[in-house]
Records
---
Amino acid sequence: MAERKPLISGNWKMHMNHLEAIQFIQKLSYALDQADYKSADVSIHPPFTNLRSAQTVLDADNIPVALGAQHCHWEERGAFTGEVSPTMLAKLAVSYVIAGHSERRQLFGETDDNVNLRLKAILAAGMTPIMCCGETLDEREADQTEARITDQVDGGLAGLKRDQVGAMVIAYEPVWAIGTGRTATPADAQAGCGLIRERVAANFGANAAAGVRIQYGGSVKPVNVAELMAQPDIDGALVGGASLEVDSFSRIIRFRLQ
Ligand code: PGA
């Protein structure tokens, strides 16, 4: 089986304006070198307003960091005030789009059905989705972790083709670990990611399961990244808070080389 190259993604959430984004990217590019890019793929996911500036800097300086978005609508255009379409993102050279982050599910009412529509639209526009899933603390305490992840994976991926699933990214993000400083233990993170890969295998076959990259997200830091990434089913990290500082984000990217 070909080794899956880790993908380290920085989810900026609603942080940084476009000027701060430019500075951040320039500093990040000084902090990283060819060995870092060889050991991991890197994506950054700034707010929509920063994408154009970020793309210009990445392009002009030839920085091998992929541009990502945090969200999109599934329609190509229309009367959807406040929304941004996948084709608009693709035009800005966005490669990865996060879909179904728990904050979108909890605060903005996203469901597995509309995550599914988003995934199809992201793929149709030629980009790679990062679909997030994970249980809340209540669900975990009620022994619902497995059922929740299964529903989210089955619902989110419904109707996709095997090769599409094999080339996409799924992030396991236990909601209780996001922004709380409470990281899942490597064993818990592996259990979640392993379950996701099993569901992919059951629904889309062994090749899709071997290809799909599964990230762990939830309070990933330079101190805990290496032991998380050492788990067999963890192929990268979706990093929130620690992706906002060049020092911590670059140390996370360099987890193999530390
Ligand atoms: P965190 O966020 O690293 O700040 O916990 C992760 C995420 O929400 O993707």
---
Amino acid sequence: MSKVDYVRRPMPKQEPCERVRNFDEVALGYTAELAREEASRCLACKKPGCVQGCPVGIDIPGFIGLVAGGDFAAGIRTIKETNALPAVCGRVCPQEEQCEKECVLGKKGDPVAIGRLERFLADWEAEQGALQAPPLPAANGKRIAVIGSGPAGLTVAADLAVLGYEVTIFEALHEAGGVLTYGIPEFRMPKAIVSREVEYVQSLGVELRLDYVVGKTRTVDRLLESYDAAFVGAGAGLPWFLDIPGENLNGVYSANEYLTRCNLMRGYRFPAWDTPLKRASRVAVVGGGNVAMDSARTALRLGADEVHIVYRRSRDELPARAEEVENTEEEGVIFDFLTLPVRLIGDGRGWLAEIECRRMELGEPDSSGRRRPLEVPGSESRLRMDASICAIGNSPNPLIPMTTPGLDVGKRGNVIVDEATGLTSRERVWAGGDVVTGSATVISAMGAARRAGRSIHEKLMGGDEREAP
Ligand code: FAD
């Protein structure tokens, strides 16, 4: 038996000093040689934990074995049996919490770099030219309205299109892709890749209607007059604020606004593009998730001299992907852990000048399982800042629930569904992704959309669940 290889092949990346001056993708991807070496580390376990750890159940040992053997075309086909967005998932899934967490190699060394291999195959396929759409069955005569073109909407649309449904996606914005387009920056999720994935879904016959705000342009009920079922994948685009004094000062943003201006509206190319974005010198980003890391790294690339992440827990509790925390640290962002902003202070002319913060300490674990942060009285200090970006979470926009009578929502405005099927309280209306869970992950949105797609198929066609992807 050959020796077990416990060391993963490193990801080639742009150097930190170079990449903070551009918006190009930071991680450059494995070469074919590195991919084959990395794939050869897989032990092809009889009971692969990695598959259990994947919310969409990709045949991981299957595709990795094909990479090791150099059959990249078969490898990408294997992934696409269960995942329509591999170039996206390979880049942004929190693999360390999912498939890679279950890899047996991780017990003594590095787990196999499953995400990097998935990305390698997706990029390899793109380099070969046109994406291969699977053969499509004859139309089954049923029409589905999908609301939102994020990972959830794209997944359910693709799954139902390959079963013969006529699917239309209604998207409020002028570009498709959801958070992948308006939220995650170019340096982590190149827009050309998102466009490619959207084109793939369109190649399955899915119609895409942009600038179409369901709840305003037409209500869900109006759509149901001409569609057999609706899937709501409208995401969670309503930002939370800290609810502290000074949040209406100039220079104070929600991460949502900041990143949308930069990504969707190409603010980083101002004045070549129309949308301006303040070039701040000292920026504080409040929060510790992927959104916070993306905002901080965007601020650096827009020319800030000093960027801080202000987070009320410690490094161990940071919810962002491990790789992005590492990238953020490498780029020189300063982390102020156990720190809570309590007041934003202006310069007397309406602009942010300082942030008053209080020290925190960690108590017992709370309902999230993480240790609860407790304020230390009398520990106030001030940070001099000219911009602050709030990245502490989002709720679903209330528009669809407000205009869809009988659609039940929870305390934070999230649509309530049956977890196994995604069916809402309204007949013929399913939902999945962030609109149900609140801000979560790409892969969890895709997993929910897949379950809803199966349920829609079963309801409309009496279809055997096992026939659906
Ligand atoms: P979305 O992606 O939000 O898509 C919803 C779509 O619906 C949007 O295009 C919206 O315009 C549209 N819509 C809303 N209302 C209407 C309406 N009334 N009519 C028509 N269309 C409507 N997850 C990860 O797994 N890894 C990461 O690294 C990661 N990084 C992130 C970084 C940022 C900055 C952000 C904001 C999120 C990140 N996430 C990450 C979370 C992830 O992107 C989301 O969980 C995922 O996109 C949810 O998918 P969705 O399809 O449910 O919603």
